[in-house]
Design goal:
With 203 residues, the protein is α/β, with parallel strands linked by helices. Helices cover 41% and strands 14% of the residues.
């Protein structure tokens, strides 16, 4: 005879188990996707969202810059954050992303290291992990209210076309070193902030 134990779980506990044990395992998702096709989409959202870095502990907040970025995305959908290297553009973008997720404005954050991104079409099959799995990042922006971050974009792409390719409820944040006339520019640190940053680096 066999002892069979039946455990009845509520929806919250089922979601916790899925997030903790199923979604991190491609093998598990591939097996279960035949019966629950939505799992593949959820897995892609899960992986893409977890690529977004958290702001570092010693991040120097730039409230004015972050506010302008959010306002630009609210009105124009796409905001470009530009400035010379080392000013903290990526950390500012990470802080904006974290703020939008906390407030519920964006359910999904799709973070792309865009240094090698040469075209909008490349986003339809972007590699999101070291195992070489690719997803359609543009399609993810059509599923939920989302933020697409293209970090360190180095090629010239049509931002208007990018806006049109993303979902109607999506926001797009681009960081780059080249400065355009409509960009939100990250200013140089004033003396007080520079000293604070130096103190953190030496601590």
């Amino acid at each position: 005879s066999f002892d069979i134990q039946l455990e009845i779980l509520d929806s919250q506990r089922i979601g916790e188990i899925m997030a903790d044990t199923v979604l991190p395992s491609d093998a598990s998702v591939d097996v279960l996707a035949e019966f629950v096709p939505l799992l593949t989409q959820i897995r892609d959202e899960y992986v893409a969202t977890h690529l977004a870095p958290d702001p570092v502990v010693d991040y120097l907040e730039r409230e004015d810059v972050e506010r302008r970025v959010i306002e630009r995305m609210d009105t124009a959908k796409v905001a470009v954050l530009s400035g010379i290297g080392g000013l903290g553009k990526s950390q500012t973008a990470a802080s904006v992303a974290a703020s939008l997720r906390r407030s519920g404005v964006c359910e999904t954050v799709v973070w792309i290291d865009a240094g090698d991104l040469a075209s909008i079409d490349a986003l339809r099959g972007i590699e999101i992990d070291r195992r070489g799995r690719r997803v359609n990042a543009l399609a993810l922006t059509h599923i939920t209210s989302s933020l697409l971050v293209l970090d360190d974009l180095q090629h010239d792409i049509d931002l208007r076309a990018l806006s049109e390719a993303c979902g109607s409820h999506a926001r797009v944040l681009v960081t780059r070193r080249t400065i355009g006339h409509d960009d939100v520019q990250v200013p140089l640190l004033d003396e007080a902030k520079a000293r604070k940053l130096l103190a953190h680096g030496l601590a």
